[in-house]
Amino acid sequence: MLVSQFLVLAALLFSIGVYGVLVRRNAVLVLLSIELMLTAVSINLVAFGAYLQDTLLSGQVFALFVITIAAAEVGIGLAIVVMIFRNRSSANLDELDLMRW
User: Fold this and answer.
1) Handedness of CA 12, 37, 78, 59 (dihedral sign)
2) Which residues of the chain have a pLDDT value below 50?
3) pTM for this structure?
4) What residues contact residue 45 under an 8 Å CB cut-off, 6+ apart?
């Protein structure tokens, strides 16, 4: 497999993620779009690590760090969304004005 195929896949996933963040109004779907963008970054890291034939496997190690950060982001983000949904009965980001004066 060529590296360009992985880069095209990662670019497609990242573009879908950016589109989801910009267009979606539901907080859970925005979190899902951010996960797509982090997955694209992980694909790039592993593809470049394999392409450069790094003996330390630094691309894979950084991909594991990205996956760990993504898991923590999902846990904290969903906890925040659930608390907002309990208080406001909506997960719509346009109606979220809890932090306003």
Assistant:
1) positive
2) none
3) 0.85
4) 59, 60, 62, 63, 66
